[in-house]
Design goal:
Length: 46
């Protein structure tokens, strides 16, 4: 059974969505870590 071009496009779109989700999650984690470090540093300076 041959896959239709539409199915193939949906597959790549889903893969792109997953990749974007991973990137956003990583970016959010990195931002949270850096923000947390800044808060800890400010708290330790008191």
């Amino acid at each position: 059974k041959r896959t239709s071009p539409r199915e193939r496009n949906g597959d790549s779109e889903r893969r792109d969505a997953v990749a974007v989700g991973i990137l956003v999650a990583c970016g959010g984690a990195l931002a949270g870590i850096s923000r947390g470090r800044a808060v800890v540093r400010r708290w330790l300076q008191w």
